[in-house]
Specification:
This protein is of the alpha/beta class and 296 residues long. Helices cover 40% and strands 17% of the residues. It is built from ten helices and eleven strands. The strands form three sheets. A six-stranded parallel sheet has the order 1-11-8-7-5-6. Helix 7 links the parallel strand 5 and strand 6.
């Protein structure tokens, strides 16, 4: 068996096209342009690349992009004051504070100062609670992207046995909640799980989100299972830096029914879902119908 490759790059392009279509209609029919504000504190190289990419793609789908780049020594009070201004700005429908923040800033305090309705990362404690109780929320972008790809591949997920390896607040926990919402039977596994290999082998859907290069080999994968690899790890191989996932791709591909590659799988969906969340937030802010297929 050779697994079908779930092409996240192509799927993300499709999602962005849907977002652009909705944005154009929103402008034409309602005179509303969704706006996304991204706040970057400091000079973290990876964060600068992410923010630049987010800004570019925001403009490409017809939204307004507002970038706020602050010095690394910006005080907590000044950062919170900026967020308060963005919360009050009706032209801003989505607010994202790029993580990680410099060490002197309290990330939890900063994230929870964002208006939950504008929290397009889905990290605010109110959105976490709403998602956990099955209510309407802003959903974290990476798990939302995984869910979209799973729905596209399988149609209904009801009754499937899903295993999420990783218990982070950003991916593992919300991914489990989303799969529960689609009527999967869900197990959250992690580094302390007894006989992790056996737990993984029971999964119809296996989501790997642990941040350990190629931790899950092919013989941990149930024949025919769908593997969603969230990991993006840079390692040295043959004297060159390469990107690999949390799953050993070649051995898993020989067993799985479908698998996401790294790169080109889950990664592109994260920004696409950020744009989708911003559109959803704009529609909710104005009491308009939410775009179908772009939310959980």
């Amino acid at each position: 068996m050779t697994a079908a490759i779930i092409d996240g790059k192509a799927f993300a392009a499709k999602v962005r096209a849907q977002v652009a279509e909705h944005v154009a209609r929103l402008k034409e029919q309602n005179g509303i342009t969704p706006g996304l504000a991204v706040v970057l504190v400091g000079e973290d190289p990876a964060s600068k690349v992410y923010v630049s990419s987010k800004g570019k793609q925001t403009v490409e789908v017809g939204m307004n992009s507002y970038e706020h780049k602050l010095e690394a020594d910006t005080s907590e009070a000044d950062l919170l004051a900026l967020i308060a201004r963005l919360n009050a700005d009706p032209a801003v429908h989505g607010i994202l504070v790029q993580l990680p923040l410099p060490g002197h800033l309290n990330s939890d305090l900063v994230i929870n100062s964002i208006d939950p309705a504008k929290d397009v990362d889905g990290f605010h404690i109110s959105n976490v609670g709403l998602l956990g109780t099955g209510q309407k929320s802003m959903v974290p972008c990476t798990p939302l992207g995984c869910l979209m790809m799973l729905r596209d591949h399988h149609g209904s997920l009801a009754g499937m046995n899903a295993v999420v390896v990783g218990r982070s607040n950003i991916v593992g926990k919300p991914m489990a909640q989303l799969l529960l919402g689609d009527s999967c039977t869900v197990t959250i596994a992690h580094s302390r799980t007894k006989d992790l290999a056996a737990v993984c082998r029971a999964a119809d859907i296996l989501v790997a989100a642990v941040g350990r290069p190629e931790m899950i080999p092919g013989d941990w994968v149930k024949p025919g299972a769908t593997v969603i690899d969230v990991g993006i790890n840079r390692i040295e191989r043959d004297g060159k830096g390469v990107l690999v996932g949390d799953v050993h791709f070649d051995s898993a591909k020989a067993v799985a029914g479908a698998i996401t590659p790294v790169p080109g799988g889950v990664g592109p969906m994260t920004i696409a879902c950020l744009l989708a969340n911003t559109l959803t937030a704009a529609c909710r802010a104005h009491g308009l119908p939410e775009p179908k297929g772009l939310t959980a």
